[in-house]
Amino acid sequence: MLSARAFGGDFLGALQPETRFPGCKLMFTLGIHTRRQFDSLGPERRFSGFRTAYNLLDVGPNPSPDDIRAFEDVSFVLRTSNGTYRTSFRNRFTDVNLALDKWLQQLRPAAGVLRIQDRAVSHGLTATEWALHLRNTGPSLDFEASDLLLELLELTLADGTRYITEIDCTALQYISPPFVVSVFHPEIRRDIPQRLVSAWARRRFRHLNLPKGWADTSSGPGYTVRRLSCIHPEAAAMMRKGAGFRLVRRSLFDITPGACDVVRTMNILNRSYFSEEQLGVASNAIFDSLAPGGIWVLGRTLEEDFSNHVSILRREGSGWVVLDRLGSGSEIEDLAVAARRSS
Ligand SMILES: C[S@@+](CC[C@H](N)C(=O)[O-])C[C@H]1O[C@@H](n2cnc3c(N)ncnc32)[C@H](O)[C@@H]1O
Q1: Given this model, what pLDDT does residue 108 score?
Q2: pTM of the model
Q3: Which residue, by CA, sits nearest to atom 6 of ligand 1?
């Protein structure tokens, strides 16, 4: 597994709640385990950190616009075991989508289908927006959005307390009202009660003696299991409609030989998150996943002003050619070109 630094996520996500909002009431919150509590935080709820129970992601099968906003805000605070945050937001890539149009026009085979992979998409809202944009502008699409994390598990014990785990059973959070504590990433140093609850909950989890395969069941002796979707309701709706859009579990490092015409990786392959070597490996995996002449869109959103800095590269022969840049381009553009040359 890569280091936590490698998966550091976005700047906003990496900050503790009280750093983002000095003196805010969240410092004193033991846990946010109901939707009512979450809503009462107002605009600050997006920065409530791991005090917010991840099971609030469950907004039901027919979410209202308010529910959808709540889902987006809970996603914003979700931190996975590899250190990655799920930071993403509506209209994040409007300029990127527009800038790509002219390059994608050139790729379109007369009667063919444009094969796109949008990797590390978090809950998939930005992928959905891009697919809708492309649909409005014409091409027939085979659009695969992907991320490592598409769902979490909620394990409820006989006493009503809950653990939120990843699908490999790594426990992330313990919910025992009024407490909601992290059991994977360290609790805030000065929050002694939360640290004690967290240490106790970690020990308890280790000694639960759950049967092998519990994660694939819905209940067992003294526990029930519920799957929590981390897929944005609008992405889920688009998938239900079919029409060439799907959201699947895939690693950024996967190689799908020549399987697509376009790969996009936004806000994940950043120098501050990955070692040079890992970035080189990922770049070459993208190269090998593209058909000859295919396009790689890579970049990052700056937290200070939400501006996007993107490089658009084309696979040509055995290397990359830089087609275009938005802002100052990707911070790993040179590295990606060099990694290909030396491979
Ligand atoms: C900061 S979000 C970026 C979301 C979206 N691309 C955007 O820019 O709005 C980073 C995402 O990368 C995913 N991720 C982390 N490591 C990954 C890996 N090795 N393979 C695929 N996805 C990964 C995380 O689950 C998280 O959803």
Answers
A1: 66
A2: 0.90
A3: 121
